[in-house]
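Model it.
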Amino acid sequence: MKAVPDGDATTVLPERSLIDLRSARCIGDAFPLTSGRIDVASAVTPAWRIPDAGPLRAVSGRIVDTLALDATYAVGSGVANRRDFRVYFAFVECSWADGGTVRCWSNALLGDFAPGQKVTAYLYRFAPDGRRPFLRVHDLADASQPVNVEDHQAVVFSSQLEDWRSRTADDAGTGGAIGASRSDSYGLAVNGRPYGRTWHENVTAVGYWSDRTGYAKGVLGADGRATASKPFPRDDLRIGDGNVTEFSELRRFRRFPGVVEDVVVVPLFNRRFWCGYGYMALVRFERRGKEEAVWAFCDPGRDDSYLGADENALRRPAVRVGDSVALWRSGDGLCVVDPMA
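Modeled.
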């Protein structure tokens, strides 16, 4: 176990056979803080002791949709030291205290859930720095399982665990014992949209902030540079320490003037959390004497990239059709739009 007092949750690594058993039965990914199956001599911090977070609650819900996203983390410099894996999320409709319902995406999950499945959602409200609170789904369990908040306190997630799962899946050639039967209905639907494949394959690489606000005060083009280097993504696997495993991945971007031709609202994810809603823009620009049009992500370092968590009350995207913008393009084709051109 590893206690992270200022983190977003606690990372716990019990026996992998136990993790697989809980995942297969949809018991939930989180574990009790004290259990004979886990080293109780280690101190851990409950997820709901996060600064500005409310108490962990258990509410009834159902799975509306599911999503699988590709993700990568670096354990050293160079392509050979990159580790690819998949993370899974569930879109959950939950009953709430006032008798109404709310819909939100979960944290990354190991358990295998399917659309329509009835679940118990373990969630809490989070209000970073006193700002408007939003819900974070900490864990999910099948509705047939006993409801017990104390049994869903410490999160099981780490880069090492995901690396192990990915290697297991590769060896089996089936997507792994858990992943083989997963539904990815949301991802399959999105892939059919003009921006879909770009979003599906790259959203976790951009590095959106888990508290849904941008921290970088200077944007890529703030000083008028033609090129810029920016670390992507922020580490969200080693919960709470804010460092990208051992190395930050530094991407070099080149600036191009462009014009917005289309704008769509999309959910934003990093490799651990749903980060609320943001936008992508179709930007037409000229490169090497030829015109191109590409879908670009909203800048994770800008507060105005984050449009909120309630899909029925979102803020307006920072760019509109016809706006002149700067397009920042990396060597591997990842594009970010800067509305302050």
